[in-house]
Amino acid sequence: MIARLSKVVAAVLLSTSVVFASSNPDWTAPLEPFHIAGNLYYVGSRDLAAYLIVTPRGNILINANLESSPPLIRQSVEKLGFKWSDTAILLSSQAHFDHVGGAAEVQRETHAKYMVMDSDVKVVESGGAASFDLPDMHFPKAHVDRVLHDGDAIRLGGSEIIAHKTAGHTEGCTSFTFRVKEDGRPFDVVIVGGWSSNPGVRYVAADGKLPSYPSIEQDFRHTFKTLAHLHVDIFLGAHGVYFGLLPKLEHGARTNPSLWIDPTGFHKALAAKQGLFEHEVDKEKRTSDSKLEVQEGRVLVHQNQGGEENQ
């Protein structure tokens, strides 16, 4: 009976994630893989981004995406002429089902070493159950081989990637920076892990409700500060919508890779996300203050009425 119930629960959770993905068709729609710059390639879907960094000692894959995504990513890698089995390191931008759901399968097929930011490890290894905002969106549990910390370097075959803890979207949300060379010129790449929240997330304590996790407001402020201080040439992200993937492709980025060089777009998007965050924090605080004033007014009226009766 318990085993049957467990299977039913698992089926319901899986169907929930499938429905969520089906409402975002660009998450699963294939996109012809392409070269970005240097040893960096795009191997994701029309919106769920995945990146391949090619080195002489094996390749680095950033994001395994949905549980159903590994076949699409593998096909993209092989279309570019690279071997799936050469995937030596797997990284993740954020511990949500749409970015780490396929990690266990990628590990099984490639034996890649999985490296995850410290505060996202519990979510990855619990299959999503430890997520503060999406605890019901489960995915296959994956073993983390190396726990990353803010500022850690991942090195392989002459390439070095820096993992920046840009928490808030998830507790261990990670943005990656590294340098590539194209036609002898160096370019600084940033892959933004996340810079906003899912619906229902709270930033401050108000109305008897706690923040979604204790340090979320401070984490977001640190994230915006960290991202603002990065030197950016090539602007990328965990979702294509972060950096205008499809519009840039429509404008010819496959044959004109200079379109990926977009520091202005990066800072404009960052300012917009920070503005939305500040608006939401202010709204939560103002709602709390106004309700507190009403409550205090009621208490005062009650006290005055009580005083008159006592007289």
What does this structure look like?
- With 311 residues, this protein is of the alpha/beta class.
- It has a single domain (2-310), classed as Ribonuclease Z/Hydroxyacylglutathione hydrolase-like (Metallo-beta-lactamase, Chain A), CATH 3.60.15.
- It contains 9 helices and 12 strands.
- The protein has helices spanning 2-22, 70-79, 97-100, 103-110, 121-125, 216-228, 240-243, 245-250, 263-310; strands at residues 34-37, 40-42, 51-55, 58-62, 87-91, 113-117, 146-148, 152-156, 159-165, 174-182, 185-192, 234-237.
- The strands form 2 sheets. The protein has a 7-stranded mixed sheet, covered by helices on one side.
- A hairpin with an 8-residue loop joins strand 2 (40-42) and strand 3 (51-55).
- It is globular, with a radius of gyration of 23 Å.
- Mean pLDDT is 89; it is low at 1-17 and 292-311.
Q: Oligomerization state of this entry?
A: single chain
Give the count of structural domains: 1
Q: Estimate what percentage of residues fall within beta strands.
A: 15-25%
Q: What is the CATH architecture annotation?
A: 4-Layer Sandwich
Describe the strand arrangement of the main beta sheet, using strand numbers: 1-2-3-4-5-6-7
The CATH homologous superfamily is named Ribonuclease Z/Hydroxyacylglutathione hydrolase-like
The overall pLDDT average reads 89
In terms of per-residue confidence, which ranges show pLDDT below 50 for 5 or more consecutive residues?
Answer: 1-17, 292-311
CATH fold label: Metallo-beta-lactamase, Chain A
> Helical amount among residues, as a percent range?
25-40%
Number of helices: 9
Radius of gyration in whole Å, from Cα?
23 Å
Q: In CATH's first tier, which class applies?
A: Alpha Beta
Number of strands: 12
Helix/strand order, N-terminal first: HEEEEHEHHEHEEEEEHEHHH
For the record, give the distance between the C-alpha atoms at the N and C termini, rounded to a whole number.
68 Å
